[in-house]
Specification:
The protein is mainly alpha-helical and 263 residues long. It is built from ten helices and no strands. It has one domain (16-118, 129-254).
Length: 263
Amino acid sequence: MEVQAEPEPKGEKMALVDTMEFVNGLYQKRNDSHLPIASHICLFFASGGFFLRINRKLIDDPTIRANALASVFARTSTLAIRTVGSKVLSGSHLILGKLFQKYPESGCAYCGNLPCKCEKHRRPEPANIQASGVQQFWTLTEWCQHIRRVYGPNNRKNGIEYVTNQLLEEILEVTMLLEPLIVGERLEDSELVMVAAEFADVFARIFALADMYGVVDFLEDKIDTHYAQCKRCGKRPCECGSIYGHEDRANVLFGPRADSVTI
């Protein structure tokens, strides 16, 4: 896969799709050459377990929480771009389109209200709501604010543990949909659309948790700084080669340490 040029942070905050491409640009060359897709999926799945561990230990340090969410964001971005892109549309833009559909500017895509008035078990089919083109320019922070406006009251009512479990459920759903790739099969176009929709839900839960924990600014700053260049080789794109040292093998199973968050 050809590595495309990605935007560099220049003081102003990047649109979400550019932030996804920015993170992916650091690791795409290394991942394509040295990270089998099955291992990439494991790393993505492990990031959810790492965040759950941070949550259950009730660690209040906003930096550590932001590190954990940044890891989930980075692994979600890199895996999404790698797996759901096509010759017509990049993975990041396909997922952004699903975010438009499922989380429109006007309010809840299911009940049509702002804020959402759905019960926990809402109706299965979304309402017919038109997406807004302005959302393509929204930054990560603006997406977090949007999720708070639409779902903040429900999220606060249900609690952080409930929203964390939602994140883990969405990560599990993506992992299950990607199972054919683990055994060397390919996904049909219709299946890729389904995966993109589930990736969009993962991002929405990341936005919700960043807002609920009050780490939105920490998260955006962490992404801008931590993923500007590789912390091991100091290069962009990363030139580390194979990442499978002892620590990395442990990360696949248990998630990285709080002081050593990497994708």
